[in-house]
Amino acid sequence: MRENYNIYDEQAEYAVLNSIIFEPKNYSKHKDMLEPDMFFMATSKDIYKAIAELDAKGKPIDEEFIKKELEKQNKFNPEILLNILSKNPYHNILGYIKELQELHRKRAALEATTLFRNGEIDIQKLISTCTAAKNMYVTEEAQQVTKHEYKHITPFMRSLLQDLKSINDYPDSMVWAVMLPSMAGLIGARAKITNGINLTVFPVIWSMIVAPSSLAAKSTLYRKAKDCIFGDMQKEFYREYEESRVNHKTRYKEYLALPKEEKLQTDEPEPPTLKQIIFHAGGTPEAKIKSLQHNPNGGVVYFDEMKAELELTNANQAYKALKTSIFDGETYHKELVNGGTIILYSPILSEVGLITKPWLLEVAQKNDVASGFMARYLFSVNSRHDFKPLKINENFIDTKKYSKVGEFIVEMFKNCEETITFKLSDEARLKHKEWFDEYSETVYDTETDEEATASYRLSTYVLKFMLISYIFNNAQNLIDVVASDNMLIIGKEYFDEALEIMELFRNESHKLLQLFESSNKLNFKIDDNAVKIYKKIDRSEHRKITRSEANNIRGIDKQIIDYLIETGMLISNKVDRTEYLSKP
């Protein structure tokens, strides 16, 4: 059907024109998607221009008026017009319009590639032209959520992900951004994981969901996630605290009523402290220190609106330092003004923050990513078109089946006096090392300093995801993994799953950096996709890389690679079933 190397489609051009002439309202409905250069054939382009001119003048769009308009310009070809009109009316005009758009993009990119090969433009002009061609018809509405395919997701994680998505068909990254910190908060300082070489981390996860207010139903998602992971655990702590307060009040009155000599020999009753696993979002930095002192296992904090918290961390450098210590689980101590010292041995606290895009850009500072602070977050960056209209869904998530798992985990660690260290199996450790070495090399070769900061921070999450998934999957089967040293070894299947989750968040991180770049919140310009791949190719030994190596570059996916090959910006060759990419 297509000729001339698939750069145009005569049938599609005729179908669009036919549909408009037989049903002029099709032009009014779709004219924002149409332009003359979409039509490759000169006669088709002339007829479309005549239709546009008639519409602009308020004249009927029919055969006679089109004929008169073309005759004025001496461009009337009766045979072509008859050929278009002789066909039965087409109904799926939208499909043909999208076909013409795609072919228009392709022609523009191929033209630029030809000029580059002939030495008429330089590489930067080639890249900018091809990028413009790729984005020629892209609208925000067209940027729908891509369904994420998982090859290695484990049973507990899949079940909870699917149940939480059922509330409002949320983007996967948004659900993970609530699930993972919640699960990490329940484990807290009870466990940590080492790669056996140079890295040991606590399951501390910070996440931030960037989405429109109300449209995304963010709060609904995190409330349901809390019910699944924690059940009534925190409510029970509140109840115990209130009972202790009443008892303390009675004991304190009894203490005050003691004779002076007896009072000197009796300890004053200590006021009760609140056990927390879900921490209060407000309060001063000092209050947070005191809470962590009383709750050494840590937990999770939910910020229904993250703006105030980000403002506080940027305005108070001492608080930012505290939060960094909390993230890394480093021992933290503070000398109190009125005397005394507070020491936090494993101050860890996961967090989930919800914020709108305008408020994030208002509060973010230029060096937030470069400093590594903002890079510590897992981001889920969403626009209104990532969400369907809200509905009242009858949601029947069996929260108890999940909260029982959380209760089992807390009970399992109850008698452990020290933090339990989990290790990777020999196979998992080797796979992790091979992956990280290749990942690090690609980051070094292709990314700006700010991109690299975000990428390296994300790499540490792989171990955290493995630990969380391993503990919850076994707890679901009522397996006490701390009962035996052999059960403290995490296998390769958890690494495979963690890598898939990390790559999803790497894509979200890239969306955030692009947002920050467009708002002048970064110090460096992010390179175009083709430039990144060219950098990797230039630094390779044989000036070529495999497709999988290209796919590991930040911001690159299969569709982008296919587009660059299709437009001649990359040359593809297969050798023994391995596809290699090189520069034109």
From TrEMBL:
Q: Which InterPro entries does the UniProt record give?
A: DNA_heli_DnaB-like_N_sf, DNA_helicase_DnaB-like_N, DNA_helicase_N/primase_C, DUF3987
**Taxonomically, which superkingdom?**
Bacteria
Please tell me whether the keyword DNA-binding is annotated for this protein: yes
Q: Which UniProt keywords apply?
A: DNA replication, DNA-binding, Primosome
Q: Could you give a single Gene Ontology term from the biological process aspect?
A: DNA replication, synthesis of primer
- Keyword hit for DNA-binding: yes
- What GO MF annotations does this protein's record show? ATP binding; DNA binding; DNA helicase activity
Gene Ontology terms, cellular component aspect? cytosol; primosome complex
Q: Where is the DNA helicase DnaB-like N-terminal domain?
A: 8-102
| Protein known as | DUF3987 domain-containing protein
